[in-house]
Amino acid sequence: MAGKPLKKSALHGVSILQLVEEIPEGFSTPDFQQKPVPMALQEGKNAIFRAVVCGEPRPKVHWQCTKGNLSNSTKYQISSAPGSKEHVLQINKLTGEDTDVYRCTAVNMYGEATCSTRLLVIEVGFRKNRKRQKEPQEDLRKELMDYRYRLKKRAPPPTKKKVDMAQVWQLLLTADRKDYERICLKYGIVDYRGMLRKLQEMRKEQEDKVAQYVNAVSNLRHIKVSKEGVATFDLELDLKYSESNIYLYKDGEMIPYGFDHQIKHCLRRLGKRYHFQIRDLQPEDAGIYQVKVEDVEIFSTELDAGAIPARVVVPLTEAHCEEQGDAVFECVLSNPSPNATWSFRHRPLQPIDKYEVSVSPDGLTHRLVVKGAHFSDMGLYSLGTGFHSSGAWLVVEAGKDKGLMTTSADHQLQARRGGVEGTSHHYGQGRDATQSTRSRPQPGTAASFKKAQDPMGLFSKSLTDMDVQQGAAAVLSCTLTRDLGPGAWFKDGVKLSAQDGVTFEQDGLVHRLLIAQVQGTQAGRYTFVAGNQQSEATLSVHDRPVIAPDVTEKLKEPLVVKAGKPVTVKIPFQSHLPVQAAWKKDGAEVVGGGGREAQVALGDGFTRLCLPSAGRKDRGHYSVTLRSEGGSVQAELTLQVIDKPQPPQGPLEVQDCQEAGVCLHWRPPQDDGGRALERYVVERQQAGRSTWLKVGEPPADSTTFTDAHVEQGKKYTFRVRAVTSEGAGEALESTEVLVAPAALPGPPSTPTIQSASSQGITLTWMAPRGPGSAHILGYLIEKRKKGSNTWTAVNMQPVLDRRWTVVDVRQGCQYEFRVMAVAPSGPGEPGPPSDAVFARDPMRPPGPVRDLQVTDTSNTSITLSWAPPDAQDGDEAQGYVVELRGPDSLQWSHAGTVPVTTFTARGLRPQEGYFVRVTAVNDGGHGQPTALDTLVQAMPVTVCPKFLMDSSTKDLLMVRAGDTIRVPVSFEAAPMPEVTWLKDGLPLPKRNVTSTKDGLTQLLIPVASLSDSGVYTVVLRSLQGQQATYSFPLRVAACPKAPGPIRLQENVPGTVTAEWEPSPDETGGVPLHYEVLTRSSAQGPWRQAADHVHTNHFTLLGVLPGHEYHFRVVAKNELGASQPSDTSQPWCIPRQRDRFTVKAPSHREPDLSQKPRFLVGLRTHLLPEGCECCMSCAVQGWPRPNVTWFKDDQSLAGNPKVYCTDVLGVCSLIIPSVSPKDSGQYKAVAENTLGQAVSTATLIVIESSS
User: Which domain of life is it from (predicted)?
Assistant: First the structure.
């Protein structure tokens, strides 16, 4: 067939041939998603090959074998469910001739795909012996060796692929540093330092390339193989462009991947995390995998061949051997597994001579030989690789001379292995339901004894045949002519014992066999043997067919199978009469047929119902009725067929919900496949792209979904699948829809502080309103410290709830918060900031308030005051709650809450009495209330008029003429008295204004004049005639006028007297004084010479000849200073120059020579062991003396345990850690050329008690 070269499939061993040059979009060549696996089965079993084929258009599938076609429909059954990709080949009742290579071919108009598998039929038992008799030259070991050889030749040996070093360097670029050495050794990189330098250069180049498409790459996790044999690796990508393509490469070749976790290469994306899976690992899957964004390598990792678990290609098969013979087990693995171990009865085999374990040179075939097998060696043998295992039974058969004693071993084996056969569902079988050939009488056993020529020779009464009903009692009895011992009883040649449910009795010469309740299995031929004589009789049990109780119990549980799988229901029964079986399904008779229909079979001791390929239509209630002449019995079972769910019911309604996104609506599927719906999977495809992106998984009880991650202005197609535990069903697809642009959401409300502590602050807020706020994806929270203008993000991802606890806070700091809404169209404007709140722990309730008292009352109000609670009784109070109640009421009413320590309760009833209490509160709660013991009346308090004067009140008020005069006078009186102002005993002039309010009366003179001077009086007169008076003098004055001209004269040598004309205001009786200022030059600053001069002359002392003196006089009073009056000419005394001589003092260098002397001597030290000791002294002398240290008259110079210092005459001897040996007399000797000085001290070291 002409075509293009073979294409590579995702599965090893599949060849694809493309028949056309170009394949249109949406179509593809056939390929295998699952290929049939090789099998090794026993003769008589059924072999089932399954292949899953894909391709568009749907390909046709053909099965072939090398020996010929598969036209025999009875032998070969080829089936495929409508709409399913799975194709099944079933070969019934295998024989040795069925060993062959079977080929599956899928063909459509664009190409064909082919794969092959092998079937090995193992012949055992009689047929194997018969074949060996016919072909004695065939040896089983040679047969296995030939098969191993053929298995090796099934494919050409793989050629070692040349490693691309560029991929190795990319692998090192993203590998962990701990793996550098292993990778370098593996690929022959010996220059380790050069490798590190090159990687550093490559990283710089890589960063520039990656920055084109990716913001950040993090959390790289290299390949790991799970216990299920699945390789996984993942990474986190922050893409700049969401539409960037991501590719997967293996050894430099791009490999396709999908999003279904059932395919071989799968990608699952969770936010920014990309999770890759490689399933069904094969040896050829080993290599270097790379993830690329567009054309830039992002991540490289390696799947080592040693990490791929070995799978079982040819499993173990049941082995049979005679006692003392050798049994052989062989298992073929997909790749070498050094850790493969053999086990017997789930326990590892001990390395003894009984077991011989070997492995083929290629490491694939593992062989176990059990030498000299005994009955104790029977059981399950298995080979485990850590991930996979294969097991088979060893059956030890008795030799021909074993006789009846071997039957117990057969029963044990049958009881251990049960009635399970192949993949069929068997419900057990009674112990004596059928007799095996090994339980039949054999030559040489008691059943083969010849009867006596004269049966009555030893038996006066022989056994007689009996017919009994099931459940009745039966007694077999015979009588001997003489005593021959207890004798032995046999049934069908098998010796009986008390454990078989029978009772033996001997009454003299009479021997009896008693059966309390006869069962159908106890029917048979019974023999009594005494000496060399025997007597036989037949026990017949008439009963209806019997189904074992354990089988009936198991049938009560529903039988659950997956669609497409074969179902075999085998029900064993016991009956000695011919039986007819009638199967029904939901009351309708099941008629056996061929092909894919149900098949009914009736065998020796069992009836069977077979469904070659179960479908949903096969589920229901089944019953089988077994009839015989003895009666009938019925068994019932429920069959549940599990399949993937059908597509949701359409049409799939798609509606553009503006800001919320795209809203989808569908109806549940008509058939859920027998499993409860778990969820729906919603996928989206953008117009112009071929990939589908999963956008959500709504729950099973929801048939609506909103995709908020669509882009405005683009077209999309959506599809929905129903998902159960069996997987996802077919998809319901929508028409193409255009998404219109949407508005941004509005700002949320101001956040409300719910709680605050040092660990976190909890906020709540209201959703925004207006356009763009219908579909909110979440909220972003920002915070800032009070007084700062910088907002920082609290959460990186939007939160759905309108409540959030901010934990990233610093204790004691004050924070503000704001919230912005995020919609599909993007984030909106932030809302207003919250109130500032401290991040600190909750407070304790405050203590009771102190000094509660009533400060004022009126007809409608009561004024209270109190002191804050004591700090020792609780935390600081943040406010106070004031409560009132009447004398006849027990209920306190809330009067108000204030942050200060005073409160006026208003709106009270006049002349009413009230009880008052005050409670301090804070964030920690309410404190203990404090109440007044007496009743408080709402009525004014009578207070005699009196003035409230303090120390700041002046006795005399002086005001500048022209200024405004405001004189307030405080008083206390209740009720309000009559207030009268007088000036010099007369009423005030009309231009003067007075006002009185709330204990304050005030005098106001808008423009003061000299005539306003006088004595002002305030008179308070109450209604009762009580009176209070207050008077004060007020003087209105102006700044004084300048004094007259200044005259200078020298009355005393060395002085100058300045006289001036007095200010005109002085003659008017205005008190004033003068200030005299002088300066030494015309431009120099004025300096005060005298102040508060009350005469009109001043004498300046210490006048120096040759200096000029200028004088200025200023008149002053309490209101200010006058204009200055200056001298016209300065005062100056001529200077007389005299000669003088300077005598320089003589200088002589001092003699500093001095012999040494100690300014501060040494002192005695008393120290514990291990402490530091520092002995210091101060020495003086010239020339500078040299200090030498001695201990017990021994010089310490050169002693490494001590060191000396000398800083500016302060000398010290330091011992870092003293010990008892350091105790003694220490001496410091200071010497120079003039003499020496000595200072001594004692050091005492106290030994430690330990």
Answer: Eukaryota
